[in-house]
Design goal:
The complex is a heterodimer of chains A (405) and B (249). Chain A is α+β, with helices and mostly antiparallel strands and 405 residues long. Chain A has 13 helices and 10 strands. Chain B is globular and about 50 Å long. Classes of the chains: A alpha+beta (405), B alpha/beta (249). Chains A and B meet through helix 1, helix 10, helix 11 and helix 13 of A and helix 2 and helix 3 of B. The structure holds adenosine-5'-triphosphate (ATP) and magnesium ion.
Chain lengths: 405, 249
């Protein structure tokens, strides 16, 4: 049997049954497209969470006073006064620490002439920029000298600038008030936008920690320490060193619990990852179900159409088609339908992912394996259920097939 | 006739069907020999086993027991595929209900058996299909689809399809059963012309009148042959056709 002849026979049969072709393809298209789109959404949000966590800082380590695990009433970390500037200074020399900054903050009203805006002022050192991956866009960062003198200077985030200077004037060099304290704006931060939890990362005011401690809060302890480890792999080691150092400095006995708490960015990202993993699994389940539904659709139509076409099979056999000819014809038909449907499904899946990205603003990321997997599942289903009933029908005597009802 | 080559030889052919646990004996031991160039009509009441016999002769069905030799080869020993090739090369089968592919043009229907014969080129295929359709008087309807034709025209297409592979014999199961008298006679004329050109024809019919136009008549009853007579001077179907009142068509 010539392949060209079989191809001709199959194409004619397809052409004679456009609606059935279309319905079969529809099952495949829906299956493939939904799997691609769902997995693209899942992977996209996972990727974006990852990116946002890494944007939060570089190998960041956060130290807070108090211990959350302590029994009884949990105290607010801000009320604990166990961390001191000298702790921060002692930790500076640890080998695993790349950058370190104390942290004190205070909420309050910022005023510039008629404009005021409630925000939070963070007292830090210039190292904080590296730790949190921040950049000063206009102006300059304050210096160590400003820290020593508790200079009345500040750096503003974009949201604060927009609210205090709605006219678009250059804030650098202007004086704003935080409560009663006048601060000279010496720089503006590059915008970071909102993070994955919806927090505005541009709603900040940075100032030397000494300024915030002495002039605004009037305290002699610090509320926290931010550091970044030299390398991701040494983060745990660095945390151990910090713990040992702090326990030693705080003169804690062997039996005492830590009076501080150290957390790393890694921990945070693991936590977030497990959440997004759950979401991906959920989406994969939905995709799996649509694949199943699509598959059953294909199965049904293929099966019914071959059963419906048993008479046609009988007729073809009565004029000399062999079983293998019938089988080849149905296989070619099934392959053409399945592959065409699969390709259309891929196109629609990619298009839908793109639309989700553009219209709903969700991050999407199409993985090659999702395309391959869905395409393979649907085409294999299509081809199998095209082949299997045809195989059965082609085993009949022609007269049985012709009589089939 | 007897000096001609033997085309079909059946011996003690039996065919049983199991229906609801009971055996239905459609053929109870049929034996005969058909020679090249014969025009055989097979008659008998409804349910006498005519179609069953013809289906076996056409290799569409297999007998329960008995011997069937076609063109000197025993059909029982053949594989399914070999029988398919036999149907494709040696047999032209015409069904009562035409059995044309729907939504398909006359020429494509006629080309179909040749599509399953890889030794025929596409050019030759078309040429032979056109010739076969011309032979049945449908040269003006090559591109009409099956559902755009009358019953008589569809039957002609089916006959052209049976002729196109130049078979050693043509089997027709009530080929005129669905047609009016006039159309029946024109189809019969066609078969007679084929017979005159030396084709072997087996023609199953209900109509006892048609025995006049064949060269041999076999009558079945309850799955057995009750008479087998030669007709040395078949009447001319063409004359009968021309004698009919020319009212319709
Ligand atoms: N596929 C089948 N299954 C069961 N019984 C069958 C089958 N085909 C035929 N028979 C039985 O075999 C007998 C002969 O049937 P067959 O079709 O050969 O008759 P026929 O002579 O062609 O009749 P008609 O003139 O009505 O076409 C009938 O009794 C019928 O019931
Ligand atoms: Mg019958």
């Amino acid at each position: 049997m010539k392949f060209a002849n079989l191809l001709k026979i199959a194409l004619k049969a397809l052409n004679n049954n456009k609606l059935r072709c279309f319905l079969t393809m529809l099952g495949i298209i829906i299956g493939v497209a939904s799997v691609i789109t769902m997995l693209a959404i899942g992977q996209g949000s996972k990727n974006s969470i990852k990116a946002q966590i890494s944007e939060m800082g570089s190998n960041m380590i956060m130290i807070h006073p108090g211990n959350m695990q302590r029994g009884g009433v949990r105290q607010s970390a801000d009320d604990m006064q166990t961390l001191e500037v000298s702790d921060y200074e002692a930790m500076k020399s640890l080998p695993g620490v790349a950058a370190i900054s104390p942290s004190v903050n205070s909420g309050g009203q910022l005023v510039n002439g008629n404009n005021n805006y409630p925000s939070t002022i963070y007292g830090i050192t210039p190292d904080y920029l590296d730790i949190r991956k921040l950049k000063v866009k206009d102006g300059t960062m304050f210096s160590d000298h400003d820290i020593q003198t508790a200079a009345k200077v500040c750096i503003l985030g974009k949201t604060v600038v927009d609210n205090l200077f709605p006219g678009g004037e250059d804030p650098v060099g202007r004086v704003v008030r935080f409560g009663k304290i006048p601060l000279t704006v010496i720089g503006v931060l590059e915008s970071k936008g909102t993070n994955s939890m919806g927090q505005d990362q541009d709603d900040v005011v940075l100032a030397p920690y000494t300024t915030v401690m002495k002039r605004i809060l009037a305290i002699d302890y610090i509320q926290g320490i931010f550091a970044s480890a030299v390398d991701e792999s040494t983060t745990d080691e660095t945390i151990d060193q910090m713990t040992a150092l702090l326990r030693d400095r705080h003169k804690l006995k062997e039996s005492d619990e830590d009076d501080f708490q150290i957390r790393s960015q890694q921990e945070l990202s693991e936590m977030m990852n497990s959440t997004s993993d759950m979401m991906t699994v959920l989406l994969a389940c939905i995709a799996g179900i649509s694949l199943l539904v699509g598959g059953i659709g294909i199965m049904n139509i293929m099966y019914v159409s071959v059963t419906e076409r048993t008479r046609e099979i009988g007729l073809r056999m009565s004029i000399g088609a062999r079983g293998i000819d019938i089988l080849s014809q149905f296989l070619i038909e099934a392959v053409i339908i399945s592959v065409t449907g699969g390709v259309i499904g891929i196109l629609i899946g990619v298009l839908a992912s793109w639309l989700v990205n553009v219209i709903a603003n969700w991050p999407v990321y199409i993985q090659l394996y999702s395309v391959g997997l869905s395409f393979a599942v649907c085409t294999v289903t299509g081809v199998f259920f095209g082949w299997y009933p045809a195989q059965k029908a082609s085993n009949l005597d022609p007269i049985e097939a012709l009589r089939y009802e | 006739m007897t000096e001609n080559k033997e085309i079909i030889r059946v011996e003690n052919l039996r065919r049983e069907f199991i229906v609801g646990g009971e055996k239905v004996k459609a053929l109870r031991g049929v034996s005969f020999t058909i020679y090249q160039g014969e025009f055989v009509t097979i008659m008998g009441t409804s349910g006498s086993g005519k179609s069953t016999l013809l289906n076996i002769l056409g290799c569409l069905d297999t007998p329960t027991s008995g011997e069937y030799r076609l063109d000197g080869v025993s059909v029982q020993t053949m594989s399914k595929n070999q029988r398919a090739v036999i149907r494709n090369r040696k047999i032209g089968f015409v069904f009562q209900n035409y059995n044309l592919l729907p939504k398909t043009t006359a020429i494509e229907n006629v080309e179909l058996p040749l599509l399953y014969n890889s030794s025929v080129s596409s050019h030759e295929r078309r040429e032979r299909a056109v010739k076969a359709l011309e032979a049945v008087g449908l040269h003006e309807r090559l591109y009409h689809k099956s559902n755009q034709m009358s019953g008589g025209q569809q039957q002609r297409v089916a006959i052209a399809r049976a002729l196109v592979n130049e078979p050693v014999m043509i089997l027709a199961d009530e080929a005129t059963g669905n047609l009016d008298t006039r159309t029946s006679f024109s189809i019969l004329t066609l078969f007679q012309e084929l017979y005159e050109r030396g084709r072997t024809i087996i023609f199953v019919t209900h109509n006892p009148e048609l025995a006049l136009y064949s060269s041999r008549n076999i009558v079945l009853r309850d799955g057995k042959i009750v008479s087998d007579t030669l007709n040395l001077s078949p009447a001319s179907a063409r004359e009968a056709f021309e004698a009919l009142p020319n009212d319709n068509d």
